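Hey, can you fold this one?
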Amino acid sequence: MSQPNVVTATPQASLWEDFIDIIVAPANVFRRREHGSWVIPLIIVTIVIAIIAFASRGVMQPVMDAEFERVAEGMRKNPQITEEMIDRARTIGAWFATWGPVIFTPISIVLVGFMTWLVAKLVDSRQTLHAAMVVAAYAFVPRVVQFIANAVQGLVLSPDKLNGVIKLSFSPARFLDPATANPVLVQVLNRFDLFTIWVTVLLAIGVYVTGRVSKSQAAIAGVLFWIVGAIPALISAVRQAATAS
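Sure. Predicted structure:
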């Protein structure tokens, strides 16, 4: 059975080295930054994602349009919803497509930090809330890579193939037609997205290092993170399926 890890002194490194090491040697980052600032990496990740999102607005527009049109078709089934209301929703959706990454990235990091701290207690983690926030902030670095990958796909793939955001995912869900597939199935398969798994693994490594747990306990925590993270999307998918039926 794996033994709880022992904290050893780790040479200091620059902040920029952290963003390289989080990809190649994440445990080292969590060891040396456990008591450091979580706000600084949160701000950096948010700014970089925002820059990529702004720069790729043009190539991502067909995906956003297709995503909204599918939602609009569902709205039109409700006789109480007018085209004026749909147009208003389209304007709001466009605003969130532009500014959403700036707003929701830091919120997501904080929520994931709280989730990590709470759920890890189920495996007897001694991780502090501060350390959980540090882990969450650095664990979001793969989302930066994901935004870049999405922008590249939007640039090289034919717009008629991008009939939904799910078509950009690196999961089995991308092979489904979002217009006809069961929403719950789509969300379940989307949890096997490469970047979602990458973030989950980083959270588990963070718990192993800062929570002073064994590798097996950290692995269990990772599975729990993956399951808990699926709940909001699944609830939304169930509601969507119920509305469609």
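The mean pLDDT is 89. Let me know if you want another pass with a different chain boundary.
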